[in-house]
Amino acid sequence: MRCFENVEDRLLEGGVFALEAFVPDPARFRPGRLSVSNVELDSVRLEASHHDPVGQTIGGQTIELREDGARFVPYRMRYAWPADLDLMARLAGLSLRERWGGWRQEPFTRASPQHVSVYERATARPGAST
Q: CA triplet 21, 109, 18: central angle to 5 degrees?
């Protein structure tokens, strides 16, 4: 919400805010998931993750195993569905102008793994010239 509020506060007349984000795929983060993401002759990269659908969070570790040791890279993120982003934008005074499946303006479909969403000010600001 703060991001959208800050954008609305700073957006110039006629300006837009473009946002690129992934479309969540909760099936990818089933409980206790462990996957191999890369295998080389001298290393292997694993990903161990957990998903909290109530909190809309994903956390885990990327683990790289090499002959000289292991490297752990933790992560934690909260995801938002495109409709959640649209609601946050609307509450901050912005509206969705368009949404694409990528920066080449390909159509956004239910199979799109990412989206580029373009928001504009929903109404003219009080006292602003039109």
A: 35
On the CB side of 37, CA atoms within 13 Å amount to 13
Length of the chain counted residue by residue: 130
> In the CATH hierarchy, which fold is given to the domain comprising 26-78?
N-terminal domain of TfIIb (2.20.25)
The string of DSSP codes covering the chain is -HHHHHHHHHPPTT-EEEEEEEPP-GGGG-TTEEEEEEE-SSEEEEEEEEEETTTTEEEEEEEEEETTEEEEEEEEEE---HHHHHHHHHHTTEEEEEEESSTT-PBP-TT-SEEEEEEEESSPPTT---
Confidence of residue 129 (pLDDT cuts 50, 70, 90): very low
Domains of the chain: which residue ranges? 1-24+80-124, 26-78
Average pLDDT over residues 15-23: 96
Q: What's the topology of domain 1-24+80-124?
A: Rossmann fold (3.40.50)
Output the pLDDT for position 130.
42
